[in-house]
Amino acid sequence: MSTRSPFPTTPLLLIALLSSLPLCGQQPTKPLTIDRARTARIDQFLQRYVDEEKIAGAVALVLQDGKPVYEKAVGWADKEAGRKMTPTTIFRIASQSKAITSTAVLALVEDGKIALAEPVSHFIPTFAKTTVAVKGADGAVSTVPAKRAITIQDLLTHTAGISYGVEPHVAAMYAAKGLGPNAGNGWYTADKDEPICVTMERLGTLPFVSQPGEAFVYGYNTDILGCVVEKASGMPLDEFVRTRITGPLGLKDTRFFIPTAERDRLAAVYGSASGKYSRAADGSKGQGSYVDGPRKSFAGGAGLTSTAHDYARFLEMIRNGGVLDGVRVLSPRTVGLMTTNQSGTLHSTTGLGFGYGFETVDRYGANGMAGVGAFGWGGAYGTTYLVDPQSHSVLVLMIQLMPNATDIQPKFYTSVFQALTN
Fold first, then answer.
1. Which residues, including other chains, have CB under 8 Å from residue 250's CB and lie 6 or more apart?
2. What CA–CA distance (Å, rounded) separates 202 from 364?
3. Which residue of 78, 185, 208, 338 has the fewest C-beta atoms within 10 A of its own C-beta?
């Protein structure tokens, strides 16, 4: 009896046949464009959140191939003052500062002034011998030496073991140094009457909460990097960012502090702990000192303010491989490091990773409808963004809600992706 297969076995033909079969669960690969009729759902979604008093207001912006394909301002920038939200409203972007500071660090890597594997102590001496606070079974806290030096790439991926110092077993130590509980929610330094490097040098004397390289711990990592930028470049962080990033890209509204004359462009902060928003108080856990503060602490981790237009333009530069309108900020290879998972499964075991500045989508479905290769993050005041290279899209949503008890961010992404059709 013949054992010959009834099907051709020519390798090239077999490859062609297999490549023509649809893969189960595969995401769409055809070019997607915005369906204007379906964007009405985005309008309705955002307006519903305003009408139900879940948010005071929002600005949403979607770029495709660098061009705005959806833009909407809804609700109030400051309801009590009677100021409506507009496309030029300025927002506190908190941790969205991290991507810009990471870009500054990598620009200096390209300059040869910083190495990714370089110890942070080369720039901040107090990090030469760091320690880790360990809580025993009896509740007692002991301090042990770090197993190795903390490096620049540890900070870029949030794997240095450095938190915001609000954990119960270290909070008192951090508070005594003006950090942790004495810095708003831990990350806030806009009211500090000292340069960021003075604060970060003091941080280096405190124990951290995990050994370097052993866990994803979100904290002061990028604030430390902001100090590294100052040390390596010889200029304040705000000047370096303006000279190398925001200035060349024309981002006139992306700054650490807002000019007094423009205070009415700044959205008010609200909170939503009770299900409906209410105005936040003044101070470090509310409105903050972004207009009337000392203007001395340029916090690379959470200190910037910006507009939807400015931030989307910055992201478009990243999506475009480090260049925009003839202005090159980074090389394509460097952008690849930022937007590719560099932390293995330390950040997530569900298909999300973390590169040198962005959370990455490594599996379709890990972040809703975002495609593999998408990247993004957000800020404590509720701002959020996502770049989806497969659809050539940049998605930005700006709100000012802290704490944010809503589910507006993932629903916003879904409302945009459902409007992308072929």
1. 313
2. 42
3. 185
Q: DSSP letter at 246?
A: I
Statement: residue 13 has pLDDT above 80: no
In the predicted model, what is the mean pLDDT of residues 302-323?
Answer: 98
- Domain with residues 33-96+237-421, CATH architecture: 3-Layer(aba) Sandwich (3.40)
Q: Which of 173, 172, 309, 202 is nearest to 250 (CA)?
A: 309
Peptide bond into 403 cis (omega under 30): yes
- Residue-wise pLDDT for 364-409, tens only, equals 999 999 999 999 999 999 999 999 999 999 999 999 999 999 999 9
In degrees rounded to 5, what are phi and psi of residue 397? -130, 125
State the Cα–Cα distance between residues 346 and 421, nearest whole angstrom: 34
pLDDT tens for 120-136 read: 999 999 999 999 999 98
Phi first, then psi: give them for residue 375, nearest 5 degrees.
Answer: -150, 155
The full set of domain ranges for the chain reads 33-96+237-421, 102-233
